[in-house]
Amino acid sequence: MRGRIRTVVSVINALAIDTEEWFHSELLGGQRPPIFQAAEATRQVLDLLDHCQTKGTFFIVGEVAERHPDLVREIFKKSHEIGCHGFSHHPLSKLNEDHFREELRRFHSVMEGILGKVPIKGFRAPCFSLDNRTKWALQVLVDFGYRYDASIFPVKLNPHYGVNGAPLRPYRISMKDVREEDPSSPLVEFPTPPLRLWRFRIPIAGGFYMRLFPSPFLHWGLKRINRDQPFLLYFHPWEGFSKTPRLKLSMVNRFISFYGIDSALKKMEFLLNRFKFSRVDRVLGLE
Fold first, then answer.
1. From CA 8, how far away is CA 219, in angstroms rounded?
2. Which end of the chain is more exposed for a tag (fewer CB within 10 A), N or C?
């Protein structure tokens, strides 16, 4: 599939690489076999981005950075943005404000030890866990100097994540109601927009949804989103890694966790060759 880059759409979209271990997925029910593959899986993604001459934002879990400092240096050296994906990958719903502050302190301490005084501007909550129940996290992000968040999933498909009624395009997020825009807010929110078809909102911009749908449908749907706005495409390196262990799970969780892994990296390359992407901070004008 690799060849000359073909770009159809001129809008510049945001690319988020959620850099975590395969066992950080909530659907694995806390199982953490001592098999560490984040570095190998992420370098596979780095090679693809080099080939496609694309920069993105790597939202890194602190545990991964602590275990693989050379990986963080490699990502930074290649001029990708470094963002925060928490320290332990615990959803905000499993933390309180004090625990979250400690997670960010540990993350920044590890990053400073690896990169020095590099500003971290963007946060992405594990499992899209920012909603009005966890809006207290927004003030913590402001206190730590963050300039944007990329955690809102504006579709409510299950009890675990999603915010019905949230804007679909980047907005200044209200500290009182994450569904509201506040021009005076210090934080910009970049939600993961769904495809709007009639009354339906269909998630397609990454993760399981990207693995589920065929490439022609993804191309068509993302072009449709680009008629009105940029989109944020997210990808977990383990989702395109052939060595990702397949654990025994319920039929539904196994399907969501592992379906399409063998073709996910090719789909990613397909999209990188047909859309323009850049770092989240650059798309938002916050570089």
1. 10
2. N
Pairwise CA distance, residues 81 & 49, whole Å: 13
Q: What is the DSSP string of 99-140?
A: HHHHHHHHHHHHHHHHHSS----EE--GGG--STTSTHHHHH
Reply yes or no on whether the pLDDT at 1 is more than 70.
no
Q: Considering the domain boundaries, does residue 262 fall inside one?
A: yes
- What is the reported pTM? 0.92
Q: Is residue 1 part of a domain?
A: no
Q: Residue 70's domain spans which residues?
A: 12-283
At residue 144's C-alpha, the angle toward residues 18 and 189, to 5°, is 55
- The H-or-E segment that residue 258 falls in is helix 251-258
CATH code, 216 = 3.20.20.370
CA dihedral 153→159→160→166, nearest 10 degrees, is: 20
The helix/strand/coil state of 270 is helix
Task: Say which residue the tokens 């599939």 belong to.
Answer: 1
At residue 279, does pLDDT exceed 50? yes
Q: How far apart are CA 166 and CA 242, in angstroms?
A: 35
Residues 6+ apart with CB under 8 A from 106: 62, 87
Strand 171-172 versus strand 57-60 pairing type: unpaired
Label residue 249 by pLDDT band (50, 70, 90): confident
